[in-house]
Amino acid sequence: MSDSKIAIRVDDLTVAYNFKPVLWDIDLEVPEGVLMAIVGPNGAGKSTLIKSILGIIDPIAGSVSIYGKPYDKQRKLVAYVPQKGSVDWDFPTTALDVVMMGTYGKLGWIKRPGAKQKKAALEALEKVGMLPFKSRQISQLSGGQQQRVFLARALVQNAAIYFMDEPFQGVDATTEIAIINILKELRKAGKTVVVVHHDLQTVPEYFDWVTFLNVKKIATGPVKDIFNDDNLTKTYGINYKVAVNQ
Amino acid sequence: MELSDYFSQLFSDYTLRTITLGTAILGAICGMLGSFAVLRKQSLLGDAISHAALPGIAIAFLITGTKDSNILLLGALVSGLIGTFWIRGMITKTHLKSDTALGLVLSLFFGFGMLLLTFIQKQPNANQAGLDKYLFGQAATLVESDVMLMAIVTGICLVIMLLFWKEFKILLFDADYTKTLGFNTRFIDVLITFFIVLAIVLGLQTVGVVLMSAMLLAPAAAARQWTNKLSVMIVLAAIFGAFSGVFGTAISASQNNLSTGPVIVLVAGVFVVVSFVFSPGRGILFKQLRKYQNRRDLKLQKTLQFMFDIAKTHENISHPHAIKILNNFQGYTRASLKEMEEKEWVKVRGQKWAMTEKGYDAAVNLYKNN
Question: DSSP code of B131?
């Protein structure tokens, strides 16, 4: 692993809703090429952290840089997979159409996607095993299939950094394995992947980097060094020894 | 006048033609933009905006003293936009939910508008009467310049929509994601909202403040039932809207004392009801039919499986068995046996049945699929 280059750098990030801090003074450095889990209890601000890095939520303080430059100038290097539940899946459109949306950013205003974009979208669908469903209305896809479509939409962006908000939520074992294999492939290709993750059991198996978050940053670093009872207890407030060692 | 008279006079009678053209264009633009409102889950926005336009009409009259519809509608546009920005402001700055913000703006602006209308009616001014036509609309007052204005706005709206099609679509589906791609979502949002306000203001003279939101929502809600494609939905909504305008005008022109606005809205309502019941994909009727069909198929398949389990114990699968043994199986009826015979799954001879090759294969495939 090369930790020579810092892909994402967050300084003093603070977010508050209703005067209540949701994220408090977060400093974070994510080296290039890691597959990082963000873990923490409900309400720890995991999704908020991703969303404020991506500019979806305005922080009250702090800054974000991607490869040393402000995020605003580096958007094309970044892809986002939102939570599946954040959109209305009854929207009148097909799986292929949703994946095509991943090409809109590079196209910019007004320009329409063409044959090149369609080819890229089909390749991405193929990669997530959804090619046979390309013309399916998205409401007729299962939860796992919808998650794969979202993943394909991000893949088509061909970014350097991927942010994913709970990609394993509500998917079956087959889809989970398919998704994690794709994430590992991304890492192999030198991409940086940041995943909001809930299942502590799978952290050592899936990820090589981890950030413990509970409003404040508790710890961040390689899984083999810092994924231990001490940090888990600090993050979740109860003794996690039993749960993890079982 | 009979309905047929209406259509024969449509091309010769200037007034009738103007009104029909006006309501058709209005229906089309409302259907188009209403699709956006429905898909953004902002169905009530139209209602709030149209009510918010009322004080603008009254104030424009108080300031200028004219009843020139263009000037009054300009007033409506300004106060409609103010209402819209209040709603947006309330939602983002306070922690009120959007339905609360919409309801507040709707009733406050409408109340203020009504207050001004009653004030105007008490003024000793011969010019005052007729402002209340904006409450329920009066299509008969449409003149050629009004229709021209509608056509121009619809044309501009169409061009903008085609130009920013991709941006509109992605914003409607996933606004957060759109932001991460680097698009200025506020700009797209304001553009959509501005056109919705414009369409509403254009419709006030014809349909009126109170019923205007139905013009936006009904054609779009009906169109959604027939398609799973955004472009088709918008075209269909425009067509439904236009037809509602034409039929509504025709019906109200052929019957005395039926005011046009409400009739147009009712016709649009008929489109909605028909779509909810009869559309093939999402309609209640076909859904129910499919459910019934599935239940019947399942019953047949279960019976076939039962028979298969008996037949496979014999070397010859077509070995005949007594029909009586089927009585032990729940779900078996004479009718289902007959249906299976029609499908050539079994052969029935007297009081015995025998499985066919085809039936055997069908049963094997059932197991495979489950």
Answer: T
